[in-house]
Specification:
Length: 381
Amino acid sequence: MVMRSPFFLVLLGFGVSVATYNLASLVIHSQNSDQAMELAGILSFSRRSDPVIQRPDGLKKSEGKRRLFHVALTATNAPYSKWQCRIMYYWYKMMRDMDSSDMGGFTRVLHSGSPDDLMNEIPTFVVDPLPAGMDRGYVVLNRPWAFVQWLRKAQIEEDYILMAEPDHIFVNPLPNLSSGDHPAAFPFFYIKPSENEKVVKKFYPEEKGPVTDIDPVGNSPVIIKKPLLFFAWCLLVIESTQSQLEQVAPTWMNISLKMKEDPESDKAFGWVLEMYAYAIASALHGIRHILRKDFMIQPPWDLKVANTYVIHYTYGCDYSSKGELTYGKIGEWRFDKRSYLRGPPPRNLSLPPPGVPESVLTLVKMVNEATANIPGWEERV
C-alpha cells in the first residue's frame, strides 16, 4: 500500500478547490454577462444556429413513461390579465391529474417587475419588464424577454414546457403532443410567411433557405423542450447543452424588437408581430414543429369542441337572439373578453341563445363554472 504524504493530500485538496471555484465563477459570470448582453445588444441575432431539421413523416406516439410538461404563461398585473389567469389556472387544476394528461407544474411569469395580489393563489415568478418605452406601446413585446429571464433563473423540474396564454382554457386533458426534437404547435391561418416574403427576408437570410421552411405558428400554444445543464465534476469540466426553447427565446426577443422598430414589418404584421418573430426565430435554429389543428379552437370560427384541448377566446362572440353570428356588429347576446378591461366579468353570465355553436356555449359554461368556484371572484381587480 502506497502512503501519501500529508503535504501531497493538502496540495491535492487545494487544487480541487481552486478548480471548483473557477468553474463556479465561470458559470455565474456567464449567466450575468449573457443577461447584460441581451439588453445591450438587443438588436443582434442569436449567436447560435442549428442545422435544419426536416419535418418528420409518420411520427409515432411515444411510449413508456409520461413526458410531463410545465405550463407557463406570461402576464401583467392589469385587471384584464388577472381575471383571465385565474380562470386559466382553475381549469389547469381540473385537467392536470386526469387520465391522458401530461401536465406538470404551472407558472405565471409576471413581467410587471413586482409581486401582485395573486401570488398566493397562482404559482408566480416575477421578472422585469422591458426598459420604459422599448415596447412602443405593444405590451406583448415583453413576452419573449419574460421567457428569457424565467428560463435563466427558475428551477423547472419537467423536461418540456407548454407556452400558454391567459385567454386559454383547457377543455380536455392535454398530453405531450411533441415528439423527439419536434415541438408541437397550433397552425394559425393568419401566419403566412410566403405571402409576406419580402418583409420576412429582412430577418430570415437567403442562405437559411426558402421562407417555406418557416412554420405558420406563434409561440403559443407550443410544447417544446426546456434547457438542460450537465456538470461533469469528476473531469473538472462543465458541459452545457441548450435545448430548443433556451436557444430560441433570445432570438425571438431580438427579432420582435427589431421588427417593431422597422416601419414596414410593423405595418405588415401588426398585432401578430411577435408571433411572426417566434416563427422566424425557430426556423433560424432549424426547428420544425408538428402542426396540430386539434391543439386549439378559436370560437366563434371553430364550431365544435370534440377531441380538441384548448379554447382560445381571443375573438368576440356576437349573436342575434336567433343564434345568428353578427361578427363585427355588437350582437343582442355577446361575450367578448375586451368588455372586461377594468375588472372581471360577473358570475353567472347569460348563456347564448339556441343555435349558437357548441364551442361558444362550452366557453361560456366553463367561464361560469370557474367564476362560481374561485373564491372572492368579484372582489379582486
